[in-house]
Amino acid sequence: MRAVLVVVLFALVAACGVPAEDLPRAVTPPPGPFPSPATAAPAPVETGSATELLHFTREDRLVPVIRRVDQVPTVDTQLGNLLAGPTPAERDDGLTSALPGAFSNAVVELVDGQARVTVAPADAETGRNDQPLAYGQIVCTLTARTDVTAVIFLRDGAALSVPRADLSLSPGPLTAADYAVLISPR
Predict the structure, then answer these.
(1) Which of 14-23, 55-64, 125-134, 143-152 has the lowest mean pLDDT?
(2) Rg, the chain, Cα only
């Protein structure tokens, strides 16, 4: 009797597997989003009918961040939100900004689809070497907008040559393609 029971149990266990197939087939995932098992606490529910795309940094890479907002921000507001830096939750996710210390001030004007960003240098030499990330944050954030095609940086009314991802200097106009190698998937 015991031998029959062992054989029956073995047959049942063997029948519970996934059948083998000779060719791969496409699998359609169920609708998401899926909670991340790495997240200890549930993420706050984002509200708002519009999105705002900002680029922050993590480990010398540009990381796109989508925020839900009540309305599409103006180009001034979006630059201000970028300059304000990551939220506490975004910082907890390891995001930082290369902008502090790179500029003491930045103002944007939209002219014929080009964002003209006037920057003031930082008050003192900070010794930072992440300028491509700082300029890339601004360029990638602003050119993600539908009303901005390129970014030009100005200082005292004159075009400013800024470092691209490959460290070459360019007076602009700059696009996200100039910093594409620095962009990391979320």
Answers:
(1) 14-23
(2) 25
Q: How far is CA 124 from CA 6, 56, 67, 120, in A?
A: 79, 23, 32, 11
Full-model pTM: 0.71
* DSSP element (H, E) containing 115: strand 114-121
Distinct helix (H) and strand (E) counts, the chain? 4, 8
Query: Quick check: 45 pLDDT over 50?
Result: no
SS3 177: helix
137 backbone dihedrals φ, ψ, rounded to 5°: -60, -45
CB atoms within 10 A of CB 161: 13
The mean of the pLDDT values for the chain is 78
Is it the case that residue 29 has pLDDT exceeding 90?
A: no
- How would you class 170 by CB atoms within 10 Å of its CB: exposed for 0-12, middle for 13-18, buried for 19 or more? middle
pLDDT at 54: 94
Q: Are 171 and 114 in contact (CB under 8 A)?
A: no
Q: Are strands 169-170 and 162-163 parallel, antiparallel or unpaired?
A: antiparallel
